[in-house]
Every structure is written in structure tokens, then in C-alpha cells.
């Protein structure tokens, strides 16, 4: 099952992008509830490796399950 970036917790640090082996993490449009940039994971591309979750410095911004209602492409 793919990982999910929680849009309203993401702070746009973006270390996950360079770490992802399949390039499934993309910048979101607009800002999240915090007013910061955010990223999202393409569920159909994610291979569930968990590297994004390991490298993310924002506690709880990425979860190890698919939660489309908590991840948006637009802010």
C-alpha cells in the first residue's frame, strides 16, 4: 500500500523528492492550511519502500498507508 503525505502537516522541506527511487512525489499547487508549500505522492507509482517517511524531518507528515482524503494536489 502506498504512503501518504498529509497535506496540512507537510512543510515543503522536500528531502523526500530526491530520496524517492521511483519519482512519485510531486509539488502541490498553492499552499496548505499552514500556509506552506506541500508535496503529494502518486499512489499508482509509489512502491511502498518507506524511504520518504524515513528522511522526512517533519514528524508525522508521511504515513505508511493510503489516505487520499488527507492528501491533496491543490492547496
From TrEMBL:
InterPro entries: 4Fe4S_Fe-S-bd (IPR017896), 4Fe4S_Fe_S_CS (IPR017900), 7Fe_ferredoxin (IPR000813). The keyword Ion transport does not apply. Pfam families: Fer4_7. It comes from the Bacteria. Signal peptide: none annotated. GO terms for molecular function: 4 iron, 4 sulfur cluster binding; electron transfer activity; metal ion binding. Its cofactor is [4Fe-4S] cluster. Keywords: 4Fe-4S, Electron transport, Iron, Iron-sulfur, Metal-binding, Transport. Residues 1-30, 37-67 form the 4Fe-4S ferredoxin-type domain. The keyword Nuclease does not apply. Ferredoxins are iron-sulfur proteins that transfer electrons in a wide variety of metabolic reactions. This is Ferredoxin. It comes from Candidatus Synechococcus spongiarum.
